[in-house]
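Dear colleague,

Following up on yesterday's call, I've attached the two folding results inline so they're easy to grep. Please treat them as preliminary; we haven't cross-checked anything against experimental data yet. The first protein's sequence and structure tokens come first.
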Amino acid sequence: MSDSDSDDWSEEWIPYSQRAEWADVVPLAQDDGERPIVAIAYSPKFREVFDYFRAIIAHKEKSPRALELTADALQLNPANYTVWQYRRDILRALGSDLYEELDYLEEVIRDNAKNYQVWHHRRVIVEMLNNPSKELELTEVALERDNKNYHAWQHRQWAIKAFDLYENELTFVDRLIAEDIRNNSAWNQRFFVLKHFGLTPEVVQREIQYTMNRIRVVKNNESAWNYLGGILRHGDHGTVNRNVEVISFCEELYASGVRSPYLLAFLIDLYKEQCLQQTNEADAEVLSKKVYNLCSDMSKNHDVVRRKYWQYVADQLKLKLSEK
């Protein structure tokens, strides 16, 4: 909730200046200087809450009422790092029930799922408790609302890595990819999990089959093509051109009339690598022509926005071949 959402006093909310238990505190106004260049039009509620917040910081007060005040301040500005940090200081000083804090954070995250400070605070509390039991469920709920929420994915990866929660993650990722085959975040999570367990030749071969099957379903899926290239480069000495099955798969797609720019880009990389590794001049010439034709097709028809890039790719190959 932002300042603009709370411009007026509500019937339930009592200003701090009218609360008897806060009578001993003198609010500390923000000092913007005599002639601020751009004066921010804070609402009365926003101004009052933060004036009192500045006052308790100045007096280093860490009390239950100060904790309550931080909740009001965060409702008005949930991205304020200083308020979150001071709230943590208060929680430590009071020895507060941190499980109650996790419950509070679930509510805050529900309305602020893309707020870095909220997730950071959550991480610190989980670390203090040394208990990640709610984190996978929490992030799953956040991802159901937005399956590409970067902060939720980042928090999930942190929890999995910090507390070794890898066991069932591949099943979770499979479900997300089945629901949305273009979910790049889910493909990235799949690679994250497999790297932990180890990309053995057997795993690489399994993943190649898995990815090709999904490309057959949706051929113009950038996420799957990127994943396929990443798996091959990780499993085969940094190249994509040594797996005969993948080469045949790509060439068959092309021969059948598929002109996905991701397929063409994959073939360009594949043929370019083969060409530069080729010792037979005639074979190298055949491969280089394939690269030039595909680059031309990309620049004129399938990826016109990046036409200069594809021209550059072709020119760089010509340069490297001239230097051999």
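Below is the second protein, in the same order (sequence, then structure):
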Amino acid sequence: MAAAEPEALRADIRGGRLRGDALASLLESLPASERDAWVERLLGITAAPDTEHTGHGELIGHHASGVGALLQLIRDVPIRASDVFVDLGSGLGKATMLVHLLTGAKAIGLELDSALLDAARQRARDFGLGDVAYVQGDAREAVPEGTVYYLYLPFTGAALDAAMARLEAATRGRTVVVCTLGLDLSRWPWLRGRESSDFWTGIYDRVS
């Protein structure tokens, strides 16, 4: 199966055969340097469409999450079928769809840009992923309810401060985990970072 063209395996996703351990084993069998392109072909994710908010000041343009980092976060959090995975700045839906397919967790993508949102929704519909949903919105104003939150450097500066304030208010009194790629959240006292040997990924537990 590892040598199969990814497009040929889409029917197995629709039919529920290429999920969980079967998909994880397939991904682990691929050379790390080939995984991202392979997964994007599998999910039908092509070049990002023209967007309304690409690289505008503190709002970072679309960048697809790396498969290796997602596999590590799934394992280390760990993310389970009982979780609700929320991607703040979900782009074309690579992280949300892949986490759902690998774990069975419900997944929600919050995305400001309508072009990215429409493309992600179409791919999820094409695969019949009823437990993957996309919401148009701004994390500075509202965030969906979840148990595991994911941020791949979607914003910086004052935009990040505002989004983190909103996330703190939305998760107050609940047990949640916040995962990041390329983003240090250690200055927020309501989060406690876990020790990690990987400088690129971060896992934080809500403590207050």
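For the second protein, one point worth flagging: The longest strand covers residues 106-111.

Best wishes,
A.L.
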